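Key result, reporting period 2: structure in, sequence out.
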C-alpha cells in the first residue's frame, strides 16, 4: 500500500467508551515538504506511531512522527540529511473551543495535516553534517585572498573588503 498525503482514521469503535485506547502505525506521504534550509526528499514518507485514546467529548493522539530529510550543511555546504523523530500530541474535540484543539470529523479524524505540520516544524533550520564539521573544504571553496600577487583583487570584491562585521555575540 502506497502512502498518501491524507490519513483518515475511523474512531467510532474507539469512542464507544471513554478510556478506550488503540495503537496506530501508519505512513503519510510528505515528499517535497520544505523549509528554506531543508526538505523531505521526493517520495519521502513519514511514519506515525501513536496511541489514540477516547475522551468523553473527543480523543487524544500522542506518539511520534519519523521522517527523512536532506539539505546543505550550514558550515561546509555539502549535502547532508538523515532521519528525525519528533513527538506529536493533539486533542480532537466534538466542539473545539480553543486554538490548540482540532475538530472531530464525524466518526473520524484526519491525521494527514497533523503529520505534515509536525514534519514542517521539525525540519532543521541549521543543518549540520556532523557536530565537528570543520567548515568549507578548501578544495571545493578555495580561499585566494591570502596572496594578492597571485590572486589580484577583483574590483567587485574591493567594496566587500571595506566592510566591517561586528563579531557575532554567540554561535547559535
Ligand atoms: Zn558540514
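The corresponding designed sequence is given below.
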Amino acid at each position: 500500500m502506497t502512502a498518501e498525503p491524507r490519513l483518515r482514521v475511523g474512531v467510532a469503535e474507539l469512542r464507544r467508551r471513554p478510556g478506550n485506547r488503540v495503537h496506530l502505525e501508519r505512513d503519510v506521504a510528505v515528499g517535497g515538504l520544505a523549509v528554506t534550509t531543508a526538505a523531505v526528499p521526493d517520495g519521502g514518507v513519514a511514519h506515525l506511531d501513536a496511541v489514540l485514546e477516547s475522551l468523553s467529548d473527543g480523543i487524544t493522539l500522542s506518539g511520534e512522527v519519523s521522517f527523512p530529510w536532506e539539505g546543505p550543511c550550514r558550515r561546509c555546504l555539502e549535502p547532508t540529511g538523515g532521519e528525525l523523530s519528533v513527538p506529536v500530541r493533539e486533542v480532537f474535540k466534538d466542539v473545539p473551543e480553543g486554538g490548540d484543539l482540532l475538530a472531530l470529523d464525524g466518526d473520524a479524524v484526519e491525521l494527514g495535516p497533523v503529520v505534515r505540520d509536525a514534519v514542517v516544524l521539525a525540519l532543521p533550520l541549521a543543518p549540520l553534517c556532523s557536530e565537528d564539521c570543520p567548515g568549507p573544504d578548501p578544495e571545493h571553496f578555495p580561499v585566494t585572498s591570502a596572496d594578492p600577487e597571485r590572486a589580484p583583487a577583483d574590483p567587485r570584491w574591493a567594496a566587500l573588503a571595506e566592510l566591517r562585521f561586528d563579531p557575532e555575540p554567540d554561535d547559535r
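The pocket of zinc ion is lined by residues 73, 75-76, 78, 129, 133 (CB under 6 Å). Helices lie at 112-122, 155-162. This case is discussed further under Risks and Mitigation.
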